[in-house]
Amino acid sequence: MAPASAMELEPPPPPASAAGTTPVNIRGEPIADLSRTGGWVAALFIFGNEMAERMAYFGLSVNMVVFMFKVMHRPFTSSANAVNNFLGISQASSVLGGFLADAYLGRYWTIAIFTTMYLLGLVALTVSASVPALVPSQEGCDKLAMLLGACAPAEPWQMAYLHTALYVTAFGAAGIRPCVSSFGADQFDERSPGYKRRLDRFFNLFYLAVTLGAIAAFTAVVYIQMHRGWAAAFGTLALAMGTSNALFFVGTPLYRHRVPGGSPLTRVAQVLVAAFRKRHAAFDSGGFVGLYEVAGAKSAVRGSAKIDHTDDFRWLDKAALQLEGDLAGGEAAPDPWRLCTVTQVEEVKILLRLLPVPACTVMLSVVLTEFLTLSVQQAYTLNTRVAALHLPVTCMPVFPCLAIFLVLALYYQTFAPLARRLTGHPHGASQLQRVGLGLVFSILSVAWAGLFERYRRGYAVRHGYLALFLSPMPGLSAYWLLIQYCLIGVAEVFCLVALLEFLYQEAPDAMRSVGSAYAAVAGGLGCFMASALNTAVDAATRDDRAGRPSWLAQNINVGRFDYLYWLLAVLSTINLLVFIYVAKRYKYRVRIDAQDTGVNKH
């Protein structure tokens, strides 16, 4: 029976005969009693590690722009781009962590190594903020001097130290990110009847841990920075990461592990080379024996069950095309650079089929990255006081997190039952439907942001605030920003949670960390694209000779942030149409073991 359409039900999880995916202990030995390991207790230790990592990540993303601007005396645009690059590297290079985990180290040891690197980077940043010699002189650098660029510039070696510490932190995050969600999901027995339901809840709770870390970054860390200084703020992040590392290692006896399957990049290269070598061979030639696969229940790929053959990407099937003489001489196994198994070929096909889905979430990451910097600039011109409550500008990004927290908390009580009645899907909506819904909310968020920014700028012009872009306007509340913040928060919940679940379930067994890295790479590309878009817009819209300011002028009241938001809305709409096309064509994966046991595959 053919695989299901992307808009139908996902296939069930593999049953007890899933060969090649048996969990092992830290020594690589089969676990005698699974009931004493894994499950929700083990997942809690992993949640703690992710919470601290996200706290550090968002704490740096919101504070480092201000630190570079106010302490290192870098221009605001340069500071924002440096932080965007940090965010981009920490996500785009996640494929390195996924590769090491799937190929050699396993997820546990990859997390252990890179989380230690992360901690060292945070300690180095704390030292940077603590030692006066590592920052430029602050003498005579008041608000006016800062705006005029008259403060003492940072020495090249001071910036080199800061960038080194920042990028050590970025690479630490890159190694952790693709492994933590997959390692947490590994703690659940995929042979149990309720596996799919538990996996669904796990990814929602995992993103809840991400959200709690972000809330702590946007509130507690900002408060500490304002009242105790930069060294205390960065030191808090290092302390949280150190504590979470200790808790992660304490949980070691409880964890279930997956055996690394060898280099996934090597297996991909072998398929491509073998297919190229047999590019002229025909499936109906006289020497055609069949598509090669090893005998028995287990596949030739360590740590992976067999994968059934599919008919798409037929040119890759040439890699498994067995001709007379391929196994001549009584060879126990063929040269994998000349003949690959069907399972190995299908791994490459799955990676290719998955690629368009995370690619369509890059635009959401662009919007999220722009909001981190542009919305803060908007908030500086608005009144952040409500009655006796005065919220610092750098705390404003906490509101998307609160929206995420609320949606996740109510998801199973409100959205899922309502959507179940409308779609008939047991989980309310399929993974790709939830990704698409998130993209719709992201369009609504930037559309509203464009409308409000047009009103905000007009208000500034009418009330004489054109040149006072760092002075809050008492008559215009910053809480109008909550609408765009909450909409983008809802977009994150639906899109990114579903994407992580989708990639884990659909990726080959021995490439799940690489599959999870797809999401992080998409996020990193979004950060780089945001920087590139800002540079392109600035160059295209600024004309110094004609006296025309850039859309992204440092004085937000002179610039046209509303035009940029509308540009993002148009690009996001085009991206949504592409995603709908991709989702309708996608076929959920059907595993060979489910077919062999007669499970209904829809």
UniProtKB/TrEMBL annotation:
Subcellular location: Membrane
GO cellular component: membrane
Pfam families, per the entry: PTR2
Primary location class: membrane
Topology class, membrane: Multi-pass membrane protein
Gene3D superfamilies found in the cross-reference section: MFS general substrate transporter like domains
GO biological process, one term: oligopeptide transport
GO MF term set: transmembrane transporter activity
InterPro entries: MFS_trans_sf, POT_fam, PTR2_symporter_CS
TM region positions: 111-135, 205-224, 230-250, 388-412, 432-451, 478-504, 516-537, 563-583
Ranges for region Disordered: 1-22
Key words of the record: Membrane, Transmembrane, Transmembrane helix
Family: Belongs to the major facilitator superfamily. Proton-dependent oligopeptide transporter (POT/PTR) (TC 2.A.17) family.
The protein's name: Major facilitator superfamily protein
Species this protein is from: Panicum virgatum
